[in-house]
Amino acid sequence: MKRLFKVLLPAILLPLMALSQTAQKPFALGLWGGLTQYNGDLGQGFYNSQGQDAHMHVGLTTAWYVASHFDFAMNATVGSFGYREDQLNNFEADQLQWNGHMRVSLFKEERFKINPYGFAGIGISYLNKLKRPGTDLYFPFGAGLKISLSDRFSLNLQETFAYTDHDNRDKEAKDNNDAFLMHSIGLSWNMACSKDADQDGVSDKKDKCPDTPAGVKVDNKGCPLDRDGDGIADFSDACPDLAGKSSAKGCPDKDGDSVTDSIDRCVEVAGLVTSDPATNGCPDRDGDGITDADDRCPDLKGSAALKGCPDSDEDGLIDPDDRCPQEKGLAALRGCPDRDADNIADLDDKCPDVAGIEANKGCPEVKEEVKQLFTQALQGIQFETGKAVIRKVSHTILDNVVKVMTENPAWLLEINGHTDSTGDKASNIDLSQRRADAVKAYLQGKGIAAERLTAKGYGDTVPVADNKSSAGRAKNRRVEFKINF
To answer: 57 pLDDT exceeds 90?
Structure first.
């Protein structure tokens, strides 16, 4: 018997308790047993085997998971309890006990194969075959060690100290209440709950999100928590307390450009994701690196020096303000060149290589002799009476007109024919047109291009004198030359 005691005592036997329970295996059953030692008025029997019989106990245990470091257990035990001081002072009784207690483990459940723990609780012990049998209230406390053998089974070693509320079960009623110490060893079986593939504490049957990543906090439906209610789980939400969008990793993004509002320089307008805090989230339609808000030319790629605008001809004037963006020009002429330096842009200058005046669209002012020639032509060009045949006497004047037109290739000549009021209007219109055409044909025959000449007959509709006198009618019969540019 002593040998058995010495073998069991160093093992510090443990009642079967489910310290390996988890949320997935919340309930455990077990068997346990070991030795019970007395301490009281008869003597100190804790850890003392000299001259003592071995008093055994066996029992059943049930346990429930409470939290990662805590569980609650109930034990029911049968065995014997006694002590031998000498032949006169001794006792032995059958013991039936029950207790419930809370246990706290040093490490988180299932983190280590070996896990120390402590416990405390309350119990009832019934002693029989005594002079004074009865039921005692006792208070168990102690420590133990859980050794995981597998996912379902664990070996447990435990020391339980129990102090009762009575002092006469050992036939003595002196200074010390009766107490006992249990050295226990046990084996527990952890009963699994419903299958929980993602191990989030919610069975697959009730789990609306069965693929939740390990360690993620979930609600009672097994889905990851979403504090801001934006549909993005907290574990992947960069802003778990602010409703946002998935494109911005759960953060607010008012313009939907994937740049969170907190770092978006243009919160109200969708833009580009950039590494530059000054432009991040702002639009840049032309892609020139200058945001549209700061770009004077948001649809034309330009430079920062010109506020985002181009200057194709590099004349210092941006293209939108440059009338001649492909030709280097003068700022005074809105970016256009002026070859003849007459302050009229070549674009508007009918004579770009000869200095002129604005009134003549950049062409030189009509010389006085040309004006005199055209004045002479008013009455000097004569036709056969009632016909559109030019008299030879008029050739000299027309040849001078040819010379002037040849010397001024930018000029356009308008030939206007007029008659007096003699005859009907239709005939006069026809005659004046034929005479103007005759002059045009003469000039073309002398080498003046047809596109530089126009002919128009007005009949008697534009008189310059009174048709009632012969002198007035003579003035009205005329050919006018008008220069255009």
So the answer is: yes
